Amino acid sequence: MKKPIIILIGTLCLLQQTLLFAQYLPKAITAYRIGISYDKTSNLIFPFSIKSVDIGSSSVLAQKAQGVENILQLKAGEQHFKETNVTVVTGDGHFYSFIVNFTAEPSVLNFSFVGDSTEKAIIKNQLLAEASYTTIANTIKGKRHSLHKHVWTEKIKLSLNNIFIKNDIVWLQIGITNKSPISFTPAYARFFIQDIKTAKRTATQQSEITPLYKTPLNKADKHYTQPYVFGFAAFTVPKLKELIIQIGESEGSRLLTLRVSHQTMLKIKSL
User: What is the CATH number of the domain that holds 184?
Assistant: First the structure.
């Protein structure tokens, strides 16, 4: 009876070793096959921010979409290049592998790896869809004014009514009140941080900041207050600097300029 028992034990030990060894065998990762063009840009949309990109050939041009963390744009640097590969690692540690070929007319230009296959962009590592921005902006429009920081120019008032932060995005609630007999039609809005000017001969340094989101610059009719909401990647205003808000009409006919101090920016509230 001892011999069969010894054989059985040996078999079990061998099976255990085989299973243990199998746990450490490399797993094959399926590579996605995509075709890219010389004249068109392909977009790869990931659910998390892109941390690393490796391109197998200089014939493939790759870059992250400007101002966005999770969209990789691919384009052929030359026509009819030899098959190559691209690998991407995202913020959640996920690894993506792609086999890339030249295709004059790709049948698909945009590839989404987001769970619900919708087009979304990650700004500052926050997943926000355009609808989310609009929802937040509409909520802010209905908030009661708490700052009342304003300036009058030619019977038109430019005011900063609230400052909020949500999802690492700073939101400014701004209003234009028109007391003039002529409607005010904004053509542009500019925002920049600059040094507080302490002497006439001192050079002033400016750093412009661009909104990630803005409500339409609708016309402010006479005797009417028009609300606007702007969202920015989180920023601060140092003590010796100030935020400048400028909203102007086309051809510089009327320009509204509001200066916002460091102390005012400290009144920011969570939304």
Answer: 2.60.40
Decide if 211 contacts 246 (C-beta within 8 A).
no
Asked if 122 and 140 sit in the same domain, the reply is no
Residue 151 lies in a domain: yes
Nearest-angstrom CA–CA distance, 43 and 106? 12
Query: Measured at the alpha carbon of residue 157, what is the angle toward residues 152 and 162, in degrees to the nearest 5?
Result: 120
Residue 2 in 3-state DSSP? helix
First to last CA, the chain: 77
Q: Which domain holds residue 221?
A: 134-270
Q: Answer for the pair 208, 187: CB distance below 8 angstroms, yes or no.
A: no
Residue type, 103: T
Task: Answer yes or no: is 2 within a domain.
Answer: no
User: Cα–Cα distance between 81 and 74 in angstroms, integer?
Assistant: 14
pLDDT score at 189: 92
Per-residue model confidence (pLDDT) at position 127? 47
pLDDT of 125 reads: 45
The pLDDT averaged over each successive group of 10 residues in the chain (271 residues) is 54 59 64 90 87 89 82 90 92 87 90 64 52 86 92 95 91 96 92 78 70 89 92 90 92 88 94 88
Judgement on whether residues 261 and 148 belong to the same structural domain of the protein: yes
Q: Total domain count for the chain? A: 2
Are both 92 and 167 inside the same structural domain?
no
CA-closest candidate to residue 118, choices 73, 169, 71: 71
Clarify whether residues 117 and 101 are in a common domain: yes
